[in-house]
Amino acid sequence: MSNADLTQLIHAVTGNHIVGFFLVLARVTPLFILAPLFSAKQIPNQVKGIIGTALAIGLTGVATQGQRLPTDAVGVIGAFVEQLLVGTAFAFALAAMFAALEVGASFLDTVSGFSYGTLINPLTGTSSAVLARVYTMVGTMLFIAIGGDAYVLRGIARTFTLVPLVSAPKLHSIVGGAVQSVDTLFVAAVEVAGPVLLALLVTDIAFGLVSRVVPQLNVFAVGLPVKIGVALVLVGAMLPFLAGWLTIQLQGALGLALREI
Are 129 and 218 in contact (CB under 8 A)? Predict the structure, then answer.
């Protein structure tokens, strides 16, 4: 091989890897916007950028192997948009899992009366009440404990096998997967909050009966502290089972994301 041929080969490989790097970075970026833990507000944007760039560098060699990427401006822009779409679909399925956790906790806050103390959730940067913050923090710790971050990284790496950089994603499947994620969100939220909501409903019924037997009793003054106490006791009893629920939901979310893209 002559020096000219070698130089041409080096330029071709380098150009292919540069385009591949930016396409991989486009697919990885939505993780740091939507996915749990990766999108946490406590992580500075500079750190997210460094981690995302490192992931893209590590995955570029695998993602571009044996593929001829577009070099024209129109082709690169089209591929860039497709990678953003694939990454967003993957991250959205994971975000729906944590959204279900927070929605279920919000149900408990509303029924138990904790919603009166609404503050800013430090993990999401949104307004949420006491139990929603507790569930979000505990869920994040359990997510790390069960190796959720490793699951997510293996999942995003798997997407390059299912949808190579030169292939277009199935738009109808992505839309269907997003709809299914939203459908399962409310079911999962009820699973998280169901036992405590049922106990609080029984508590309300009991106080209703007591108010009929003892009309002079100020049910509103007595009922709120009792409901808060019941909610705290049952939430404390339910938290050990949250790890199993989170593991099942994580596996289901990853399976749905990888199946639909």
Answer: no
